[in-house]
Protein: DUF4179 domain-containing protein
Amino acid sequence: MRKQGRDDESLDKEYPNERQAEEIDPNWMFDRQAIQQEEVDIPDDALKEVIRSGLMRGKQRSRNVRRRRLLMRASTAVLSILLLLAVFTRVSPVFASVLKDIPFFNKFVQLIDYDSTLRSAANNEFMQAVQVSDTVNGRTFTVHFIMTDGHRLVLFYSLEGEGITKSSSLSSFKIQGAHGEAIPAGYTTWGAGDEDNSAAGEKFDKVDIRIQPGTTLPDRVVFQTECEQDKFQVEFDIDQSRFATMREQYTVDKVFQIGGQSYHVGNVTVTPLQVEVPIEDMPGNTKKTNGLIELALVDEQGNRWKWDSGSESTIYFYSSYYTRPKHLTLVADGAYQVDTGRKLVIDTDKLQTIETPDERLRLVDTKPSSDGQKLTLTIEIDGMDKIEGVKGYNLFNQSTPFTDAEGHAYYLDGGSGISSLQDTSLDHYKQEITYTIPNKPYKQPLTFELDQYPGYVLQQVKVPIR
Structure:
């Protein structure tokens, strides 16, 4: 399977699936699965202490806010904690103690509830209070608490200070050991905050970090990031004992076929925050595969855990760890497959599309940068059906050069921006993709090798996992 960038996944998260009654839907934007409410196992005094402690911290952090707003936020904190206790199925005194160490925990409840795996982990008290901060130019970055199983590390953070809004975002991530040892990882940010975070000067969000398979997460880590021009660094411990024995592995070693192409499923690893499934193209495949359609894990009761992210040969699913299914099956409805060797030939001077795999692909605009050093190309894919249209396509590989009419090679200058449009009246999808190249006096036309492109085969598969 093709490796994802942060915005180039082999299996893109753009399936707009509706939640079913028996489905554990991991799509955090739509996951509103109701949780059965059980008796809350916490003494009244402990509950009062949780609420009192949260309110005291709220007062300390809001001294410069008018009394009326302070009272409103304090009331909101009480309500949020009460709702939290109602949402999570089990709150023990140990969990209550963790909550007391995390000021404004209610700000993160929605972020947890959107993700069925994180919600399940929270139900089982699988979080560690951190409370480390770094202040730069009057802005403070704080990691309040984490969830990690050694393979996935989720940081729940806040940004506070002048100019911070709900649209503020982090960039340029790096995680390493306390002694500078490298930790290869991939990073995802969601750009979604608590709806209650409307006041200027603060933002609450999370960073999802996938540790590269085969890499060990150390006992202490350093996390570096940026917000605009401000660079932050925090260091914190990771309690390995919380997850040291929480790992299950199943031997699979099976091959399945779709459209005459073969794929191998390796050993599956299940931890509290993810299910890791190696899926590789077999030697001899003649087509390019850009993902599997409706890929999921299904248990004996019909509960489904859909894929969460992917790399070149490893797919991550939302975790079934705490559900403890007796049987688990990998299922898919087909694969996104296209012939290899396809090209796009265009004349950027005359704005002409000379050669494409089909009439759906064309160059629609070119625009030089203000300094004249770069040229932005806007390319459109039109006429896609629903199965094709819900998946975003990155047409070109950044590491593959394009050539001019004289055979001179050049490389893309920067990433791609994807904007998908849907016309429901005609039931077709359109996608516009922008690329930037050096603005040179090319000998026209230019030839680009296509990496991803619409095309699929429908064929149901079922691979027993356990």
In short: The helical segments are 44-60, 67-87, 93-100, 109-113, 116-123, 386-389. Residues 67-87 form the longest helix (21 residues).
